[in-house]
């Protein structure tokens, strides 16, 4: 090509691309060396340069996309490790399999007893006993949740701590056993009445372990393979000594300083300080928070017949057995002071020195159990019965006590889901309640005690509920074996420390029916039959021990006994339904040998 007669070399057709420096976030800028200057020539068209620049960008983006796809391969980000095991780039299932394989390799270490020091005592705890373990699925989920930028995922690394679980209740029970006599139970605050004199019980802290801190320490120590120290801490009730004194001065003392007058449209009743003291209660919750309340049921009992002048007590419908079938005994409605309103209004006036009058409205009071509700319970047939024999006739104190308890329980109805307590039903069994002195076991020997013999009724009731298939909640066999009772499946009782309880675990109501003769007591359970049969299978007696002879000082408190052997035995309650065994429950007990008690000195050699 010639321009003005001068020959010019051909133009370079290679495009010149201007590149701008690019940097990822948090990265240092990368310097790009500019391309050499293109020889002068005619200008190139703009569309061509843009098209070529777009092509280069596409290549760059494609590279980034490829890196991102690589980085995000699998459910767990690349570079993620747990316990030194690479889980990155794997699916959750593969990651879980890899982690389980690592745990198998570490099994000897992870299953080894863990040394725990509680206070000043050292104990060894097997991880399996407190369900101390690594939750594989939760750990993999935590690892998969760690998301990052593709470049970080591509070249970075991260360590995820395993998720450790422990059975907090088992751990707490284990530590408390290990605590032994180092610990101290919390003294809960309250205010009690001796007669009409209120007395404070001040709070004292428990010396114990903190369950949450202990669990964290055990999990961390186990993972690290080091001994664990669980310190003892003081745990105070929520109510302070100062708050107890405030309640004492502002409520408890003025409450019994004088009577309260209860007025209604049917007349008035004077509530004396003794009845107020009986009904005023200071309840404390598990945290030690003290709350005053008026127990209207106890107040009614303390007032006795006084309320009968203004109230008509409702009566529940009931059942009696007539002609071999349950027969309904109708209930009746009543008119009573509303218990909730009475409790609230009494608490409002008790702190006052004057104006101690409560105006109450008598309202209709329906019985708790109406005939309609009774019909829904489905009590239609006898499902079990049990009889035990006694000696001495109805005139003996022991027989009298057995029959007295039977009369109080006769006709009791237990609704579905309810728990029946014998102590709760009869209340205290003392002289005022019609009970007499008879032999009871106290400190390993027979001595006279009020209510002796009620254990025989308890055993009879226990067996009736046992053979009805009802749930055993609480019972305790005798220390010694008595041949008049079935071994193992029998129960003693002692107010207020030993109780017998059963739960109605059927969809039907339960009626307790009692009857007696001059030499026997019978308890029958009426309901709707749920099971085909309930039977007992015994294991052999074992560890048989012979009684020793003990000579006691003669006198009115000495009761001789022939003695009996001691032994251990198992009894199995076998419950069948629809021709199949659906439940097999084991009951075990160890009887002490009952000494042969002789009222008199040892014979001389």
TrEMBL record:
<keyword id="KW-0472">Membrane</keyword>
<dbReference type="InterPro" id="IPR007391">
    <property type="entry name" value="Vancomycin_resist_VanW"/>
</dbReference>
<feature type="domain" description="YoaR-like putative peptidoglycan binding">
    <location>
        <begin position="266"/>
        <end position="358"/>
    </location>
</feature>
<keyword id="KW-1133">Transmembrane helix</keyword>
<dbReference type="Pfam" id="PF04294">
    <property type="entry name" value="VanW"/>
</dbReference>
<keyword id="KW-0812">Transmembrane</keyword>
<dbReference type="Pfam" id="PF12229">
    <property type="entry name" value="PG_binding_4"/>
</dbReference>
<feature type="region of interest" description="Disordered">
    <location>
        <begin position="22"/>
        <end position="46"/>
    </location>
</feature>
<protein>
    <submittedName>
        <fullName>Vancomycin resistance protein YoaR, contains peptidoglycan-binding and VanW domains</fullName>
    </submittedName>
</protein>
<feature type="transmembrane region" description="Helical">
    <location>
        <begin position="50"/>
        <end position="73"/>
    </location>
</feature>
<dbReference type="InterPro" id="IPR022029">
    <property type="entry name" value="YoaR-like_PG-bd"/>
</dbReference>
<dbReference type="InterPro" id="IPR052913">
    <property type="entry name" value="Glycopeptide_resist_protein"/>
</dbReference>
